Amino acid sequence: MTTAAAPLPPEVAERSRAQRAEHAMRRAMLLSFGAGFIPMPWVDVAGISAVQLDMLHRLAELYDIPFREDWGKSVIGAILGGVSARWIADSVIGTGAKLVPLVGNVIAYATLPTSAAATTYALAKIFIQHFESGGTFLDFEPSRVRNHFAHYYAQGKRVARQTVAGSRSALEPR
Q1: Domains: count for the chain
Q2: CA of 150: how far to CAs of 53, 127, 147, in Å?
Q3: Please, what is the Cα angle at 161 between 121 and 54, to 5 degrees?
Q4: Residues near 31 by beta carbon (within 8 Å), at least 6 away in sequence
Q5: Which of 1, 54, 61, 137 could bridge 71 with an S-S bond, Cβ 3.0-4.6 Å?
Q6: For residue 171, is it within any domain?
Q7: DSSP class of residue 137?
Q8: CB-based burial of residue 19 (10 Å sphere; 0-12 exposed, 13-18 middle, 19+ buried)?
Q9: What is the distance between the alpha carbons of residues 164 and 45, in angstroms, rounded to a whole number?
């Protein structure tokens, strides 16, 4: 069972679908980045996952694609479960480091927020392309996008740093 995503602000609703998709991606990147700062290990990952699932829901609505929460969870898990060791290391080190007093949070805050935003960026780019080409959740094949995910993840780390540095205008389309 899913609920409808919150309506877009009027100034965003008037934009093209590509601009609205970009807005949804950048919004989710900022929220994911923020969730990476949740001080409780594994609660941070749950927050990041919730943001990413909401983003997929927003993108699906934008492209008139039926969405079910279980589909979203499945595709996110399938993509992230088979991706690079680098992403896994960034995420596990980021959240697991919070268990180490004092120094752990420093390590976590240096890695997890950017990794979360980059992951969100990569997921958005993959699904925007998939939906633009007429794809749905039912015909999505995670094994075909893993190399693209790695590329977008690396690109997303750069974009995340730039987005957060200029977060005041991060929600504006580029």
Answers
A1: 1
A2: 19, 14, 5
A3: 30
A4: 51
A5: 137
A6: no
A7: S
A8: middle
A9: 19
First to last CA, the chain: 34
Predicted TM-score (pTM) above 0.90? no
CB 109 within 8 A of CB 37: yes
Greatest CA span in the chain, whole angstroms? 49
Query: Given the structure tokens 């007093």, which residue do they identify?
Result: 101
> What is the pLDDT tens value at each position of the chain, 174 positions in all?
455 666 666 666 668 899 999 999 999 999 999 998 887 777 888 899 999 999 999 999 999 999 999 999 999 888 887 665 455 555 555 555 556 566 556 565 667 888 899 999 999 999 999 999 999 999 999 888 888 988 999 999 999 888 767 754 544 554
Specify if 9 maps to a domain: no
Query: Tokens 């965003």 correspond to what residue?
Result: 12
Structure tokens, 17:
């679908």
Q: List the structure tokens of 55.
A: 């983003």
Domain that holds residue 112: 15-164
109 lies in some domain: yes
Torsion of CA 37, 40, 46, 48, to 10 degrees: 10
